[in-house]
Amino acid sequence: MKLHEKWIEDSRQMGLLVLKKQLQAVIYGLAIGDALGVPVEFKKRGSYSITDMIGHGTYNQPLGTWSDDTSLTLALMEHLSECSDLPALMDKFVAYRNGYLTPYGDCFDIGIGTNRAIERYLSGVFPEEAGGQSEMDNGNGALMRISPLAILMQEEFDFSNKVKIIERYTKITHRHPRSIVASILYIQILIGLLLNNNLKNTINGTKKLFLEYFEPSHPYRKEFDKYFQVLFEEDLFKLPPSEIASTGYVVDTLKAVIWCLGTTNSFESAVLKAVNLGVDTDTIGAITGTLAGALYKIESIPEKWINNIANKLLIDKKIRDFLHYFEKLEY
Ligand SMILES: [Mg+2]
Questions:
Q1: What is the pLDDT of residues 17-39, one digit of tens each?
Q2: CATH number at residue 64
Q3: Cα-Cα-Cα-Cα dihedral of 11, 17, 19, 24, to 10°?
Q4: C-alpha 266 to ligand 1 mean position (Å)
Q5: Are 137 and 113 in contact (CB under 8 A)?
Q6: Using 50, 70 and 90 to split pLDDT, how confident is the model at 328?
Q7: How many A from CA of 144 to the centre of ligand 1?
Q8: How many structural domains does the chain have?
Q9: Which of 141, 161, 223, 328 is deepest in the core (most CB within 10 A)?
Q10: Which pLDDT score, from 0 to 100, does residue 331 have?
């Protein structure tokens, strides 16, 4: 091998190693946040306190069990790795209801909006039109499963391409513009953190990009101005917990996860704060874990929690397959 060939090969290997660490940070972070929240899902804030990973509780599942948030994210990773079409992805969601991509072959948790979209798809509706589009259809079910798009698009500098892909993968379960705006903001913030920007710069950059790209008359802009503006104000991190709702409404969820990230200084403290907010603990834990993984990197995630992830072999297999997809792209 000539010197310049060796140099190219070395830098390729280095790129794949960085990608592997990013994927582990984001996906382990997601599964850990999910598993921390599962035992206390629906519980009222203040009625419990999570300081470490526990088992049983709400669904009586063993320690480390993750739910639909992680399963449907793995489904997206699998779909992207295979370069399959949208019906193939919807078929994976259908299979999830029968235990596919779960820790123990058992589906114990599925969001109402996602379940309705699956039903519409099964009745013959195209995947692109399967998501609910009323104002009541703005749950956090798309937000919780789209993080692999940030890994996929971190080097995509054309914002319009990113928006198109985010729309495509959000609409299959959530078609209201509010849900799509939440997905765009979330993925752009996640990309900023993956590219090693700090939280403040990432948040400011995301707001600037969004406002520059969408004209004031655009439906997304109206949603932003009315519902998401607060996420980008410095005062957000000064708000007391009583001002932070932790429901499954996508606006509440995005505000809660950014607040958890901005009011703590480690992976551990961010996810614990998230799962102690109550109600939709697994999804708020999962999304906070994803962002905190990207911000603090794999080395900062407690090893005992990584080792506690149920059926980690399955998650590692999906990470490897996704890496393999990038490896093929490099050639
Ligand atoms: Mg869940």
A1: 999 999 999 999 999 999 999 99
A2: 1.10.4080.10
A3: -170
A4: 23
A5: yes
A6: confident
A7: 9
A8: 1
A9: 141
A10: 55
